[in-house]
């Protein structure tokens, strides 16, 4: 069915017992040796890095993004699989998706159980990801996990240890994998891809601040004072906080900080319903609502907007365009 390049970045799928816990130590060829290949597929491995995904930095993620583009510059490549730790997989996958304009699929996968586990899920997930990369087109960046196919946009880790680790709480499932076949159930909606960003010498700092009962502006102000060029405010409900936080957002925006507004609720969009510190006031103060994107992916959208321009007005425009689903580029399945 084709030539697939596997980019190995570490994670549980590449982890072994170290005496006190598991750590990503296996290279990509060792990971590939655990899984059967779908018939007709040839595989090449790129060992990019091998780290537990909570340790990933923006520099790691931008290196991965550029590597994906370099691999796809070869027209004989039919697709890409990225093996990745599950903790930050949703962030890296969304970053690649924001900048992905090629019809060939880039499929992220990983595992919840380490290498060598009797009931390990890594080999099956890897097989499914290879099959998905070889047989789908025009769907953007995907996540293949536990027999399911998810669009990168909106998908998040919803289970800490269970094998069915990923879902988009706000949308229907994109596809299923079984009996050697990938069944696509819907067509994802994706805005126009952003240009590939430059590799900055020092990536912009983007922080996340969560609201809660008794929440005040201290942490948001601290992030700005620490040099954050972007902040994701994780509100309550449909995206709400307090009048004091509204004032802090207004001051941050006036200083050129890009502020995005999401919610700590698992499903549903940020919606301008409430005032007195609610989303109505936060958006009026300059915060950009992120729809159904939750904190991790909202942060990636802010990062991409900051990398796209030095102008705060243009950054906000790019962020809104990256979040937009009103005028999407419709993709045929």
From TrEMBL:
- Carries keyword Hydrolase? yes
What this protein catalyses is: L-asparagine + H2O = L-aspartate + NH4(+)
Task: Look up keyword Hydrolase and say if it applies.
Answer: yes
Q: Specify the L-asparaginase N-terminal domain's residue ranges.
A: 3-188
Q: What is its EC number?
A: 3.5.1.1
Instruction: Show the CDD domains listed in the entry.
Output: L-asparaginase_II
Q: What class of enzyme is it?
A: hydrolase
In this protein, which residues make up the domain named Asparaginase/glutaminase C-terminal? 205-314
UniProt entry keywords in alphabetical sequence: Hydrolase
The active-site annotation reads 12, 86
The family database entries (PANTHER family) matched by this protein are listed as: 60 KDA LYSOPHOSPHOLIPASE, L-ASPARAGINASE
Q: Member of which family?
A: Belongs to the asparaginase 1 family.
Q: What is this protein called?
A: asparaginase
Name the source organism. Streptomyces polychromogenes
